[in-house]
Design brief:
A hairpin with a 3-residue loop joins β7 and β8. Helices cover 18% and strands 37% of the residues. The protein is built from 3 helices and 9 strands. The radius of gyration is 16 Å and the shape is globular. The longest helix has 11 residues. The protein is α+β, with helices and mostly antiparallel strands and 146 residues long.
Amino acid sequence: MAIQRMDNVLIVVEDLDVVIAFFVELGMELEGQGPVEGRWVERVIGIDDVRQEVAMLRTPDGHGKVELAMFHRPTAIGAEPKNAPANTLGIRRIMFAVDDIEDVITRLRGHGAELVGELERYEDAYRLCYVRGPEGILVGLAEQLT
C-alpha cells in the first residue's frame, strides 16, 4: 500500500498570531484555528494534560498545508538552537514555489524575515533563497524561470 499524499507539516511555535501573519503574508490561507485538548490528543501525541491552540494554513492550490501549534500546557521545549544552520540534523526548512521572489522577500521582511544567505540563480531554471522568519523558522523560496 502506498501513501496517498503528504497532508501537512507541523511547526510548534511560541507566538501563534505572529507566525500566522508571516505565512499569510507569504500567500497561505488560514483554513481554521482553535483549541485542541482532551484524552484523544493526549493518546495520539503521547503527552498527558495537553492544551494547545492550533491553526491550519493551506497553499492557494489547496495541496500543501502547514499546521501551527502553540502549547498552553505542557510548556513547549526547545530541542536545538533557535537559529540552527541548514546543516543541522532534522527537518530544516519548508520550500515554497513563488511567482515573484523579490516581492515575496520584501513583504516577508515586513514580518521580521531576513535572508539567510543570498538570492541566487540556479542555471536557467530557478532563482532561490532561504529566509529566516519568526521564531527561527527557515523557509526556502523558489521562482521558476522560463
